[in-house]
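Human: We require from you a standard protein entry with sequence in single-letter code and fold as tokens, and nothing else.

Assistant:
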Amino acid sequence: MLTEELLDAARSHEGAITALRRAIHAEPELGLDTPKTLAKVKEALADLPLEWREGPSCTGAVAVLKGAHAGRRVLLRGDMDALPMEEHSGVDFASQIPGRMHACGHDAHTAMLAGAARVLAARQDSLKGEVLFMFQPGEEGYHGARHMLDDGLIDPLPDAAFALHVWPNAPHGRLEGRGGPMMASADQLEITVRGNGGHASMPYDTIDPIPVSAEIVLALQTMMTRRFDAAEAAVVSITKIEAGSAHNIIPDSVEMMGTIRTLSPERRKVIRETIARVAENVARAHGCEAEVRFIDGFPATINDARAVSLGKEVALALGGDTPWADRPAPTMGAEDFSYVLEKVPGAMFFLGAAAEGVDWKGCCGLHSSRMVLDESVMPLGSAFLAGCALEFLQNGWR
């Protein structure tokens, strides 16, 4: 695996990795349309022997590095899109576009993937197999990975897939992973409760949907704690309730919105069915009607245990004061690399990116307008991705 050489090689490109990250950070793009970001990546890698694939659905691209010898195929992924929020990080290269910010580290993911491409391209003559570098837009709710799969950009499917996500409030340079569920599915829930409005002074002449909606919210929370095993985490949160037009009018209907987070396809299905049953029957008990709608989000991110073992081996070989931690439990956040992991064995890992020596627990987290990363950790991320690819190409699953 030559991990010391990989880390030295990645560090030799630290300036280029950092420059690419800062250029992307200063000009963030949203959703599935990230042409300027992709252009920056292509320019940074223009001298490498890569074959580029692009599709019609989005600005995602796959760069293929073919080794000198036949062998397995491995995919490494980095996402490119930003978030629709103002930046208050105070860095010199802050977003130049109002209302947009790279607050989830995708700029670093893209730069680290580009660094891994440069490290691995230097070993093309001894490389057995192929490496696919997946530069993906639309991770923040736009299903970019699914679009790229549908466009056939990674056909035929690789034999393994790896991705890395920075964690700004975790120890500098510590890699984390776990077999099984790593991140949750994330579906949107919408409920319309319909009654019969009227004058607020005469509620007995109406069918008031507001208290019925409140009862549905409480019933859903009771459902979660009494219907489902607390050892298997799941979350249902109602985050928005909208109704009424004046203080003396009982409305005809109430609109509610929320999120559902689960860790398995089976639990995802059962919770949906139970939510619909609870909402509809609570409404019916009070003479109202409830319409329940689900908007599919990302599936759960489920890591292959073999891929996690491989990543742990690479992380420990790369060294450092705290090179690895077995993650004890999943996070209930969601990640659309899950679409890839539904089809290809692999794993998503976390990389601690707090500055060395700081109280990392107090650092601003992902999606904070003040989120910052210690950029000196990025060469480690590039070396880790390159190491996972090389280890799999050389030895496969052990």
In short: The two ends are 14 Å apart (CA to CA). The mean pLDDT is 96. Residues 85 and 99 are 5 Å apart (CA to CA).
